[in-house]
């Protein structure tokens, strides 16, 4: 154990106190600088090291957090909180096996830690260990009906119950509930559990349904509908509305929206995608096609195909699966680059979230070269500051029409503009990720904050209506 001289103790305590004040207020840069200064004075100070790791994880600097926490292994080997932080950091790096190992170490010492149980179950679900995950979810529910995220003030302004379906495609919510004035209860929705609806009703002013992916969560939408109706509180994204947001349903519902191009989309079983049994509706689709494994996002198991042979080669990789086939639309801008815009709809308002620019049709912000291309960043910054400079009155009228047709309280759209100014619709659902880990694109933070503030205002409005 490190021992401080009286002079050290006197010099380091004010630094840590000031750092912690910045930390709690969300001023991460100031907190990091002061924690680092404290560690220069006393490299072995555990509190400063653990708090600095929390700051680094919150800022999305997971590699730095791992390096900090593994620097002095002889002092940290079986520390529960350090294993928990390493679990978070490795999860952020998508090193799920390592993350699971560290959270299991937490459970070995604290078997009734419901947060660790939740992480272990989530990781096992992601790694395909479904029976083990289900066991941990049930254990967590038996110990505690839900995981609570405390408000930053006491008493909280109101209370929110969020229904989370493990492994079933949920609305990303973590950034929305970080450091807010309301209390959040996250309930795991399992198909074979009887819930105490009276207790849930007494615990919430508003219910938020997070089950957002129709393909992954189809079996849970009916139980979710029954549960929210029994609770009887205002509901964000009622499951009955989510049920109408599959990719093929969205394509049909938006096909008549003026100013939009919505490529035809067909959902087929593997048998109806192959050879002589191929769905005849595909004959009307222009080529090439896009084929996607149903229930996937982020470009996973998704490619462009030019003929039936390529369709067959893709489908045979996934026995007993369903697929989406969609007409490909060449949405290149006049300069040859592809641009994908994301807007979020919150309580009837439209907010820009990002612009991704790439030289390939399959775009995700993380797989572009935008971190190295200042002109791309400048263009995204300008779009976020003034989206109407890109999407004019006609395009915003189309976005409003989309919002009215989809009729969800919180959802997003990924889209482009073709050379004639039409909105090319790629995806519309409540699964869209919005996050605040924008260290390399700090200009995005204002847009994220606006979305988060509007989300909280919507919940406050609904809670006050009870």
What does this structure look like?
There is one protein chain. This protein has 466 residues and is α/β, with parallel strands linked by helices. Helix 1 (6-25) packs antiparallel against helix 2, helix 2 packs antiparallel against helix 3 (46-58) and helix 3 (46-58) runs parallel beside helix 6 (80-92). It has helices spanning 6-25, 28-41, 46-58, 62-69, 73-76, 80-92, 96-109, 114-126, 130-143, 197-202, 214-231, 239-242, 247-253, 308-315, 374-385, 393-406, 445-464, and strands at 147-149, 159-164, 183-188, 206-209, 235-236, 260-261, 265-269, 289-293, 302-305, 322-327, 338-346, 349-358, 410-417, 423-429. The longest helix is centred in the first third of the chain and has 20 residues, at 6-25. The protein is built from 17 helices and 14 strands. It folds into 4 domains: 6-113, Alpha Horseshoe (Serine Threonine Protein Phosphatase 5, Tetratricopeptide repeat); 145-233, no CATH class; 264-327, Dna Ligase, domain 1; 338-464, D-amino Acid Aminotransferase, Chain A, domain 1 (2-Layer Sandwich). The protein is 43% helix and 17% strand. The protein is globular, with a radius of gyration of 24 Å. The strands form 3 sheets. It has a 5-stranded mixed sheet. A 5-stranded mixed sheet has the order 6-14-13-11-12.
